[in-house]
Input
Amino acid sequence: MFASEQIKLLAESGWNTCDSVREGVERAGLPIPTAAYLKRTVDASQWDRAERAVEALREHFKGARFAGETVFGVLLVPDPDKLDTRGAVDPAMRADQTGKTGKGAVDVVDRALPAGRLAVPPGTDWTPVATVTGPTGLHFGSFDDITAADAATFTVDGVDTRELMVRQIWGARVLQSGSELPDCEVGGGWTFTLFPGEPQVDGKAASGTVLHDKVRFRLGRSDRGIAVVRVSPALVPA
Output
């Protein structure tokens, strides 16, 4: 049941149904992750591990603020050697996501940001990751609050999920979301996602958001802990 549900959701996601994203995937030299492709390449044991990881995340974080609004599922993360989601992507990929084309579709990336951590290494076209797949994540306060917290708060199945709260995961989630962008002000639900798995830069914390038709990878105050500040725990099913 879980595998069939997730395959259906992924087949209807931005990877397949958002023309500009799908075309960008093809230009990057990646196979399109259609339902047929996923059924052929992801075996039953992998889906079983993904299901356990998703359920473990739901159970562990069920008491977190905004847990009732947070959707966990399977995110497909592309091979970073073919499509690197840690920062700006080909502006043409954003055309059907933001409604912008050409220069107007260019992602905004703070110049001070380093390349970013790879939670998913190169070598596999698509890696299923258990994480937040809906529009918003959980609230645990500021970057400083999260990084200073007891590891048990974020450890699931022996993994400190803060280590996987990185730009690569969020960037893939934005693309998978198609035209229904996460952390976006459209619809009145603007939030931004922190990346505690990335080191601070000159005392500032990295985050991602979609604002005014721009996908933004930003640096900001590490002590900002208002309700719109979110995180997205993740597990790479072993």
Q: What stands out?
A: Residues 44-60 form the longest helix (17 residues).
